[in-house]
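Recap quiz, item 2
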Amino acid sequence: MTHNIAILGASGYTGAELVRLIATHPNMRITALAANSKAGQSMGQVFPHLRHLDLPDLVTIEEIDFSGIDLCFCALPHKTSQEVIANLPRDLKIVDLSADFRLRDPAAYEKWYGNPHAAPEVQQEAVYGLTEFYREDIRSARLVAGTGCNAATGQYILRPLISAGVIDLDEIILDLKCGVSGAGRSLKENLLHAELSEGYHAYSVGGTHRHLGEFDQEFSALAGRPVEIQFTPHLIPANRGILATGYVRGEAAQIHATLAAAYANEPFVVVLPMGETPSTRHIRGSNFCHIGVVADRRAGRAIVIAALDNLTKGSSGQALQNANLMLSEPETTGLMLAPVFP
Amino acid sequence: MTHNIAILGASGYTGAELVRLIATHPNMRITALAANSKAGQSMGQVFPHLRHLDLPDLVTIEEIDFSGIDLCFCALPHKTSQEVIANLPRDLKIVDLSADFRLRDPAAYEKWYGNPHAAPEVQQEAVYGLTEFYREDIRSARLVAGTGCNAATGQYILRPLISAGVIDLDEIILDLKCGVSGAGRSLKENLLHAELSEGYHAYSVGGTHRHLGEFDQEFSALAGRPVEIQFTPHLIPANRGILATGYVRGEAAQIHATLAAAYANEPFVVVLPMGETPSTRHIRGSNFCHIGVVADRRAGRAIVIAALDNLTKGSSGQALQNANLMLSEPETTGLMLAPVFP
Amino acid sequence: MTHNIAILGASGYTGAELVRLIATHPNMRITALAANSKAGQSMGQVFPHLRHLDLPDLVTIEEIDFSGIDLCFCALPHKTSQEVIANLPRDLKIVDLSADFRLRDPAAYEKWYGNPHAAPEVQQEAVYGLTEFYREDIRSARLVAGTGCNAATGQYILRPLISAGVIDLDEIILDLKCGVSGAGRSLKENLLHAELSEGYHAYSVGGTHRHLGEFDQEFSALAGRPVEIQFTPHLIPANRGILATGYVRGEAAQIHATLAAAYANEPFVVVLPMGETPSTRHIRGSNFCHIGVVADRRAGRAIVIAALDNLTKGSSGQALQNANLMLSEPETTGLMLAPVFP
Amino acid sequence: MTHNIAILGASGYTGAELVRLIATHPNMRITALAANSKAGQSMGQVFPHLRHLDLPDLVTIEEIDFSGIDLCFCALPHKTSQEVIANLPRDLKIVDLSADFRLRDPAAYEKWYGNPHAAPEVQQEAVYGLTEFYREDIRSARLVAGTGCNAATGQYILRPLISAGVIDLDEIILDLKCGVSGAGRSLKENLLHAELSEGYHAYSVGGTHRHLGEFDQEFSALAGRPVEIQFTPHLIPANRGILATGYVRGEAAQIHATLAAAYANEPFVVVLPMGETPSTRHIRGSNFCHIGVVADRRAGRAIVIAALDNLTKGSSGQALQNANLMLSEPETTGLMLAPVFP
């Protein structure tokens, strides 16, 4: 059975990545592509790497007839997304890739995003989209809120450890290195090639990055009490990839065993043998997440490192994985592409 | 029907790229992987990006039992390849990715490669592997010689023009820009990241690059008289991609029409609308080749530009395309992956 | 004697490069920095790499008192520059880095830039700023028009050959590869890191690049008859550098001898031994230009290649070299910095 | 007065960087360049970016007559350095850039480097080369041991804090990101451009990096009791630069004040205003080190970040700074070059 798919916000990187992945999906057909600023153009004009595909031209959201659509991906900017989704038909399945429905508490949303939520009642029905941990809820969800790409990476290493109680909850530091495409296709001076190439730096230092809202929400829920980690993202001159280096207190062997057990049956999350560590180059362009654990020289401390592709497992791949669940497709369909190296 | 596949030279980039592509092929099963220098290791150790695949461990070539193998890819270094292939079973289909069987004339081989050919009798049965132009011969070949990646790119823009007689045969200049992975995984000082990054240069200037042997052979055969082009490759600080800028004499509209007609039914070669030009970023990681034509401001001159991925369409993708033909599979199977951008 | 220097347009890359170079100049003092969009900020805020220097804060052009200024660099956008310069005091020496005063013929200016020149009378007194060829005129000039960075690179290889009559004037092809910083600091989608990194392409193909106006003007003047070359620039994922590959008709030995003689006493233009070719990595960050000549395998044809840094020798370094001449300083002062490699 | 300088190991990156810097030094003359593997070649052949300089050809170490040499830089590989230096004339001033004389305790040396020290008696007279903290000893030293580039970066942020007692000595984590040139010019598969470009990873995780020997030695000496930090380096696809992100316990305002006071009169170490953080792109190619401090959202925790260029301030620039002191030159001579951006 073929599912009819719409993508709103198709002119951004996550929109393009969705199209790339769905192109190999045997049971999905893209029937509408919306991008208000580029309406009227073909997808091949906006993204020439997709020109070989038979795709509908870009239209405005208003032009879409949702009656025949089974599932809609929203890859719109934050804030726009909540306004659009609030007005979509109630019988439409939706996977949102924006930040708008990630935080369940409206106060937390307002704290991290600076404005009151425009659709708090829709927020209530959203399921958090970290597939491996919300799988059953996602199957029956109408609206799934895709996670932040940094938030996903950090949770892959920390959730099982927090749940199992094998690390000190008050001593978690996450030092994250992310590629440039995570910042999207927006026109900012600090995203120019001449600015970024050959240099790197930290940003949102000291606990101001919005993905901390997700960490706080999820880790506190898991622990049953407030958990606040330290989190510093860094921008690296590469297009794709997130490498999260976690510093935790606990026994490395136990930490490794906990993670290995947690992901033993997961198709996309790979725990490396004890002592090995991952590289972003080995997951580039794929839906895989590689995790490594190393004991520190100081007893009772460990370093846990995860690598994933921010556009795939961190965003559009996750979205497709969730859509598969919502449409009762095998979860891995369209997502087993091998990483591209070199 | 599943075909059993062996890959010799699996520890190089073209070997890894073959594995990446075949992983999505429904009717091929990799049953042997050889890499003498890394025999005993798993493919995941040598190429961690392939660790999710269920693959045989690396062995030496001598350890392979070829009796159950249907087709063998040889991704060995030049010169080694001819020695190995001369000793492979006669009933084995072979796609060679080295330079060893590209030149039909033993004297030409010796001129460009500096040593007499070790298996000239095997050379005689080799079919040149530029799929779009040798398709019928490839279907029934025992041994197909994969083209040089630069040679493929130049031929895609020039062959139809030479055949149609729409350009001046004595005034062809090809200025080519290629990514680093084309040089392979060999340990050379000039391939270090610190040497290459952020700089670019020409190499093999003045007509000394070995791929000229292929151009001379193929263009002269097409024209029915000697054709010698000018050819200058440049090394660009990017991993994948070849961009070939051809300067030719002829009417741009006629040139465009000739190319458009030649590739009208080709699944992988795309001729852009008149005046548009390609970018390597839009074919990265895929088997597509994009071609553009622009008229120069001086009448009677045109610029013809092609872009392809040296590891895919220029090498391992081409090899798989040829293997599909040899095994009576649909030609595009396993090769319709969309390019990875950004 | 210390010269007081103003820089208009200090918030762009060429402005910053001027400051970097002048910082090592013993006899120049920067007394005014203008950047209307960032007036009020310190230079260290706009360019943190210059924060260790003792510099005046950015002001608007209107705020500058030019009475004490000896020389003014204009690193403003095209079109703005002509309007500003027309209103500067008549006794001020000016080095303009924009395109506004490069073309002597108002009709040529309008043809290439699309608008009538706003200060044609000022244009008449401008001296073309290619130092090695206009040195004496520059010494006594009030206004020097810095060349295009691509135009400079092409002229370094072609001017001596045209003057000496050793190449065929109707058969000149220039295939140029330039780094990203040449496009400046403007906010354009195609200059984003995620767009450019790891890919490359041609642009302004077919004779539409504005620097052709300079080539036409200069080469025709040298030859005493119209000369029109073919010119294709390509954008390469590196920050700095231009590599110009010239295809010419003539005897390579004579071509090499002509270039070697032309630059024998030049401090910044280095002709490599016959057969060697340059790389942008070996001139990065410096005012040097390296030139190489190779004979093609086809008699009577040669490849001539030049490498320089677009921001230094192609723009701000050239500007400082000219300013030295205008202020009767030794020409090389502040410009002997070695290239930065790796 | 001109000092005669020899450089041993001139064919590596730190050797070339020394030549680049000394080229602008008014009172140093390079009179001997040794590189055993490339003896007989000119420096311009080995490093074409230095071809404009008038330099002696490369010789073997044995060929050097040290009688007229005032100071010798040793940029040799570890282990070779100690053997060579043990046999140099006793009246020669030496700045060693290798790891051989950094650790004062022979047992610590053997622990971190795996072999007994070949010249322990020479070790005893070596002064640790972190200029800002050993300035007076360096002035009168015969042998100065250049620090590890990572070790220098970490010490710049941590030494003043440990000395002042404003951070918890048992809770120091240093997450470091370094560019590729720090690994030198050696032929290793993992340093190839195709391997490194567009990916990043941690290495020597868990307390195995040799620069920890320096941290342990220096921090314990400062604190008067054993101090063991956690340290994880990461390899970033850029040529130059180290960014060290330190996680410490203490009051951010006090930490910032302590660092600002410590470096108030230092010419090369810049403490940014509270809350600002550095980027490697703003110190590239220069001898500057930028330091930033940010308070974490959790009280009593701070993030301290330093950026420097591993080849300059982290190695050859530091060496020249020390040589200036040893030769009674102004400390900053030859080192005030502005960073190169973009």
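Residues 181 and 225 of chain B are 34 Å apart (CA to CA).
Chain B has a mean pLDDT of 97.
End of item.
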